[in-house]
Amino acid sequence: MTDDQLGPRPPVVGMVGAGQLARMTCQAAIGLGIGFRVLAATPTDSAALVCADTLIGDYTDQPSLLAFARGCDVVTFDHEQVPGGHLAALEKAVAGPAGPVVRPGPAALRYTQDKLAMRGRLRELGVPCPRYAPVRDVAGVTACAQEWGWPVVLKAVSGGYDGRGVWVCGTPGEAAAVLAHPVAVFAEDHVGFQAELAALVARSPHGQGAAYPVVQTVQRNGVCREVLAPAPGLSPALAADAQRMALELAADLGVTGLLAVELFAAGSRLLVNELAMRPHNSGHWTIEGARTSQFEQHLRAVLDLPLGDPRLAARHVVMANVFGAGGSPAAAGTAGPDIFARYEHVMAADPGVKVHLYGKQARPGRKIGHVTVLGGDLPALRDRAVRAANYLATGNEEGE
User: Fold this and answer.
1) pTM of this prediction?
2) Helix (H/G/I), strand (E/B), else coil: 79
3) Cα–Cα distance between 303 and 202 in angstroms, integer?
4) Is 56 strand, coil or helix?
5) Domain 131-189, CATH number (from 3.30.1490.20, 3.90.79.10, 3.40.50.150, 3.30.70.20)
6) For residue 230, cis peptide bond before it (omega within 30 degrees of 0)
7) Which of 65, 231, 278, 361 is most exposed, with the fewest beta carbons within 10 Å of its own?
8) pLDDT tens, N- to C-terminus, the chain (400 residues)
């Protein structure tokens, strides 16, 4: 029997990067019955451990990137680190009816790779953000502080995540210590906010949009610890404003796929903090907690399929990240025998907890998994999620 007699083959989505986002997207691809491949740096990358179609290569090497794309119908990303020039070359090389499409494209991804360009574009669009200014020296930072007051936030123009690439400087001396490093930065006003929020939306190439409930992210040292869906205490009007803003940004920036908009809630104002054009930690709760997970939604969007239902599956959903334990890496163990030995306690103590592990070496402070719980009592859900996450990480329900 020929391929024509078998009917058209399912499309293949290729994801550059093989971290936990690609791993969970691979699981969604299996459910949709589509082809899925990843470009991994090593065979032990999180997604490479579970994805049958894995190419080992370097995303910073243009020939490797082009070779990976040739077997795909759509190319997408689980991180923002692919060099902009490589993205442009990729889009040009695969252009045409027979080649894959790049979603989101380099014109959109620029605003996740260059935070100063992102701030400038948001200002042009009239989107509320913290005050900011390019700076090259301590005098520039001090000038900002004279206008805004100390502390002043310095942010890396490119790179940086989970608290990295962000420095809160209370004095000129602290700013000088940051500027001594060869990292391009800009200055930003230190916003007094009541909560950190995230608005996650999807947009397809023909313009269909879908918005998930706005969530609150609970951060410690710039790292997300918990996600509360929907954001408690957020007024329906402000939640609708956040969803509208995110959908309009997706359209204005030409995003195809998911867009996560991280926000500060400052009184009655919403200020945009960061953007991500991919599945996002603030959306992991959607696997069990929404009618369509963010990973399935991203695949639907980049394939230009009708988008799924983003509504909650329960009144409240709480997600808590699982981190590598403190101490030495050897003492922390791996996301293998040590952590699996703790499953019995977690599952017996709370059968409603859903556990997701990423197959990653458990280094201190590294995200190695997450847990999700659903129900009607938010304080009780938070307690259950944090206890389960702490026990999986340390063997102690109270954490480190």
Assistant:
1) 0.93
2) coil
3) 12
4) strand
5) 3.30.1490.20
6) yes
7) 361
8) 344 444 578 999 999 999 999 999 999 999 999 999 999 999 999 999 999 999 999 999 999 999 999 889 999 999 999 998 898 888 887 665 566 899 999 999 999 999 999 999 999 999 999 999 999 999 999 999 999 999 999 999 987 666 678 999 999 999 999 999 889 999 999 999 999 999 999 999 999 999 999 999 999 988 999 999 999 999 999 999 999 999 999 999 999 999 999 999 998 999 999 999 999 999 999 999 999 999 999 999 999 999 999 999 999 999 999 998 753 333 333 445 567 788 888 999 999 999 999 999 888 889 999 999 999 999 999 999 999 999 999 888 776 5
Q: Which class is domain 315-400?
A: alpha beta
| Torsion from C-alpha of 43, 44, 45, 47, nearest 10 degrees | 80
Q: Give the CA-trace dihedral at 103, 157, 115, 263, to 10 degrees.
A: 120
CA 79 to chain centre: 8
What is the token pair recorded at 108?
């959109």
Pick the CATH number of 191-313 from 2.40.10.10, 3.90.550.50, 3.40.50.20, 3.30.470.20: 3.30.470.20
| 3-state SS class at 388 | helix
Collapsed DSSP state (helix, strand, coil) of residue 366: coil
CA atoms within 13 A on the CB side of 249: 34
* Cα–Cα distances in angstroms (integers) from residue 294 to residues 103, 127, 310, 311, in the given order: 16, 25, 8, 11
Contact 19, 45 (CB under 8 A): yes
Q: Answer whether 307's CB lies under 8 Å from 202's CB.
A: yes
CA 387 to chain CA centroid, Å, is: 24
Beta strands in 8-138 (DSSP E): 12-16, 35-40, 53-56, 74-77, 101-102, 132-134
User: Does the domain at residues 3-102 carry the CATH identifier 3.40.50.20?
Assistant: yes
| Contact partners, residue 87, CB within 8 Å, separation at least 6 | 102, 105, 106, 109
**Tokens, residue 199:** 């608005």
